[in-house]
Amino acid sequence: MAYWFLVTLPPLVVALAYGRAPFFAWYGVGLGWLAALAWLAGWPSALAAGALVALGGVGAVFLLPALRRGVVTAGIFKAFRKALPSMSQTEKDALEAGTVWWEGELFGGRPDWQRLLAFPKPVLSDEEQRFLDVETTELCRLTRDWECTQKQDMPGEVWRYIKDQGFLGMIIPREYGGKGFSALAHSAVVTKLSTRSSAPAVTVMVPNSLGPAELLLHYGTPEQKNHYLPRLARGQEIPAFALTSPWAGSDAAAIPDAGVVCKGMYQGREVLGMRVSFDKRYITLAPVCTVFGLAFRLFDPQHLLGEVEDIGITCALVPHDHPGVAIGRRHLPLNAVWMNGPIRGKDVFMPLEFIIGGPAMAGQGWRMLMECLAAGRSISLPGSNTGMQKMTARAVGAYARVRYQFKTAVGRFEGVEEALARIGGNTWLSDAARVMTAGAIDLGEKPSVVSAIVKYHVTERARQTVNDGMDVIGGKGICLGPQNFLGRAYQQIPVAITVEGANILTRSLILFGQGAIRCHPYVLKEMHAAREGDLAAFDAALWGHVGFSVSNAARALVMGLSGARFVGVPQGAAPDTRHYYKQLTRMSAAFAFTADLAMGTLGGSLKRKEKLSARLGDVLAQMYLASCALKRFEDEGRQAADLPLLHWALQDCLHKAGEAFEGVIANFPNRLFAAFLRRVVVFPLGKPWAPPSDQLGQDVARLLIEPSATRDRLSADVYLPTDLEEPVAALEAAFRATVEAEPVEAKLRRAIKAGHFKPGLMIGGGVDAIYTAALEAGVITHDEHAIAMRRGALRDKVIRVDDFPYDFDLRAALVDVAEPRKAA
Ligand SMILES: Cc1cc2nc3c(=O)[nH]c(=O)nc-3n(C[C@H](O)[C@H](O)[C@H](O)COP(=O)(O)OP(=O)(O)OC[C@H]3O[C@@H](n4cnc5c(N)ncnc54)[C@H](O)[C@@H]3O)c2cc1C
Questions:
Q1: 500 is catalytic
Q2: 103, 500, 726, 732: which is the annotated catalytic residue?
Q3: Any alpha helices (H) in 206-278, and if so which ranges?
Q4: Total Cβ atoms within 10 A of residue 760
Q5: For the chain, what is the radius of gyration of the CA atoms?
Q6: Model-level pTM greater than 0.85?
Q7: pLDDT by 10-residue block (mean), the chain, 824 residues
C-alpha cells in the first residue's frame, strides 16, 4: 500500500506546480503527504515525527521571508551579483528602451488571448483612407521605376508632388503643419508605394521614421520644433540621419566620430560650441538633404560644460550647407534610385544650439535613438516589405495562370504550387504582423522587441516571397527593362535585410537577448535588485521566478501529454482557430521554461551562444507572428474563404517554432537538461507540429491563381495601373482574359478528344492558329474565337521581355543627372 502511495507524489507535485500553488500550500500538502506515507508504511512514531520535523523545519525556512533571505537567498544573491555581466551605459539604454507589449504575454507562459482579441482593430480615419486612395495612388501613377532607374533619380515632378502633398511630414502633428497621421496610415502609405517602386517608398519612409522629425518631436527644444517641424512638414527641408561610420556599422555605439566642446565663431559671434570631425556613409537621402541629424561622441576636456569629460553620444541637427560639411556624393545601393551617400566633415565648428534638445541633451543621443528606433522599425521595413510581397502575390499569381508550359498553366504544377503557397501564406502573415504592430504603436506602445521581430521576420519572409516569385516567372524576372515587374524588388531585398539592424545580428543578439531580459516577468527585477544590492527585492523576484519556472515546466508537460486538449481558449474563439490557441499556450509554457533553463545554466555566456539565442528568439517570434495571424482573422470578420491562408500561416509558424526548439535541444550544452527538455517539457510524445500539408498548399496556391475576394484582400492596396503598356496592368487584363478563355480551350480539347475536330498541321500560324481553324470548322463560335484571340494578344504582351541595342549604354543615361533636389 505504501509503495502504491509513493506513485501519488509525482502527480501531486505536477498538480501543485501546474496550478502555481502558493508556498504554504506546498508546505501543507507536503507535510500531509509525508504523514500519510508514514502511517501507511507503519513507520515507528519517532521516525515519523523526526521526518515531519525535518521537512517542517526546511519548509519553514522558505515560508518565513526573513529566514529565507538570510539562510538561502543571501548566498544566491552573492553568486548572482558576481556572475552578472558588466553592462555599458549604451547597453543599458538599448536594453531598457521602449515598452513591453504582447510579447511579454508570450514570454510569461500563459498568454491572455482575451487581451489580444480586445486590442482595438487598427483602422484608418476617413482622411487617411482618402490620402491612401487619392494622393498615394497618384504618386504611384507618376512614378515609373524603369525611367527613374535609368536617370537614377525620380523626375522633378515626382519630387515636387512628394513635398507639396506632405508625404515627408506624415508623422508631424497638425499644429506644426504636418498630417498627424497614425502609425497605421504611415505604414499603409509606405506599403502601397512599395507595390510600385522603392524610389518614392524609401524617400518617404526615412523622414517619417528616424529622420530628425521623430527625434525633434520627442526631444527638440521649442525653438527647434518651431523652426524645423513646419519646414519639414511642408517639404522645405529634406532630412537625413547620419549614424553609421565606416568603422562602426552594427556596433553603432562605437562610432569614432568625435566633437570637442570649445569656443568658436558662428554667424559673426564667438559662441560656445563643438568642433566635430565625422565620416559617415550609407546615409539615406544624404545627397539631397537640406538638414541632417548627426550622431557623434562629445568630449569636454576643458570642462566648459561641467565636470564630465566624456559626455557621450550626442545628436545634433546640421544644415547641409554648414561650413565644412562635405555632402552631395552618392552610393548606388544595388542600383537603387533613392538617394544615399556619405557625409563628411573635419573640425567643423557648430554651436551648442545644434544639439537636438539643446546643451541639456548632450550625451543623451544613444538613449534618444534607442527610444525612437522602435516606432520607425515597427513601420518602415515591415511596410515596404509587405508591399513588395503583396505585389508579388498579385502579379506572380496572375502570371502563373497566364503562362502555359506543357499545355498547362504553370501555376497548376505541384512544384510551382509549393512556391505559390509560400508566397500567399507569407504575404498574408506579413500583412497581419504589419497591421497589428502598427496598431500597437497607435496604442502608445514602443515595443522594442516586437519591432525587431517584425523587422527581421517580415524582411526574411519578403526575401522568400520575392525569391519564390522570381523562380515562378523564370526568365521574365531576370531580364531587366520596363516590362519586368519583379526584378527591381529582387535587387532591393538585401537592403531591407541590412538596414535598421542587420538581420543576422538582430536574430542572434536582439530577439532573445533583449527579449529575455525585457519581457521576462522576473529577470530585469532580479538584475536591478542585484545591481542596487537590494536583497529583499531580489528575494521576492527570485522565488517568484522559481515558482514561475516550475509551474511552466509542469504545465508544458501536462499540455504536451494531453495534446493541449483541455487548455482554455478565448471566449467565442472561431472553431477553426481553437486548436491554435491551445497549441500556442502549450508552446508559450514550454518556451518560458526553456528560456529559464538556458539563462539559469548558461548565465552571461548565453550572450556569446548566439546560435542558441537566435533559435530561442525564433520561437518567440513565430509565436508573435501566429498571434498576429489569429488577430487578423478575427479583425477581418472571420472570412471563411481566407481559411487556407490562416491555416497555412499558423501551421508554418508552429512548425518553424518546433524546428527551432529542436535546434535548441540538439545543441543545449548540458545534455541532461537537454534530455529533460525533449522528454518532459517540449516533446513528451514526439514532435507535434507538422508543416502545412500538400493539400493545404494547393488550396493556398489556387487562391493566387483564381479571381476572388480573397485574392483582392490578400493584395489590397497594390497599385494597379490601367495603361496596358505597363506590365502589371497587362498582367491583370491577361489574367482575366485567360480565365474567360479557359472554357473555350476546354471545349476545343473535348472536340479533339471526341474526334470532332482534327487540328492538322498549322505551320507558322502561331500558338493561337488552332482557334482560327476551330472557328472555320464550326467547333467554336465567333465570340469564343474573339475571347481566345484577346487572351492570346494579352498573353503575348505579358510574356514578352525587353531587348535593347547590343551597345546600349546605361552610363549615358547616368550622365543625364536629374535636376537638383535640394529645397529652396
Ligand atoms: C542602403 C543603406 C541605407 C542605409 N541608411 C542609413 C541611414 O540613413 N543612416 C545611418 O546611419 N545608417 C544607414 N545605413 C547603415 C546600416 O544601418 C548599416 O549598414 C547596418 O547597421 C549594418 O552595418 P554594416 O553594413 O557596416 O555591417 P557590419 O556591421 O559590418 O556587419 C556585417 C555582418 O555581421 C553581422 N554582425 C555584426 N555584428 C554581429 C554580432 N554581434 N552578432 C552576429 N552578427 C553580427 C551583421 O548582421 C552583418 O551581417 C544604411 C545602410 C545601407 C546599406
A1: yes
A2: 500
A3: 212-219, 222-234
A4: 9
A5: 31
A6: yes
A7: 89 94 94 95 94 94 92 94 81 85 96 97 98 98 94 95 97 96 97 98 91 89 97 95 97 97 96 98 97 98 96 97 97 95 98 97 94 88 98 98 97 98 98 98 94 97 98 98 97 97 96 89 93 95 96 97 96 95 98 96 89 97 98 97 98 98 98 97 96 98 98 97 96 98 97 92 86 96 98 97 86 49 53
- Burial (CB < 10 A; 0-12, 13-18, 19+), residue 15, is middle
248 lines ligand 1 (CB under 6 A): no
Q: Find where cell 482593430 sits.
A: 121
CA dihedral 439, 445, 450, 451 (to 10 degrees): 80
Ligand 1 center–CA 498 separation, angstroms: 6
Helix axis angle, 727-753 to 365-402, nearest 10°: 30
342 lines ligand 1 (CB under 6 A): no
Question: What secondary structure does DSSP assign to 24-43, as a single string?
Answer: HHHHHHHHHHHHHHHHHHT-
* Bridge pairing between strands 291-299 and 258-266: parallel
Asked whether 277 and 261 are in contact (CB, 8 A), the reply is no
Q: Is the CB of 243 under 6 A from ligand 1?
A: yes
Cell numbers that stand for 176 in this block: 506644426
List, as one string, the DSSP characters of 73-134.
IHHHHHHHHHHSPP--HHHHHHHHSSB--HHHHHHTTS--HHHHHHSPPP---HHHHHHIII
Q: Cell numbers for 598, please give them.
A: 538556458
Q: Which three cell numbers stand for residue 647?
A: 491555416
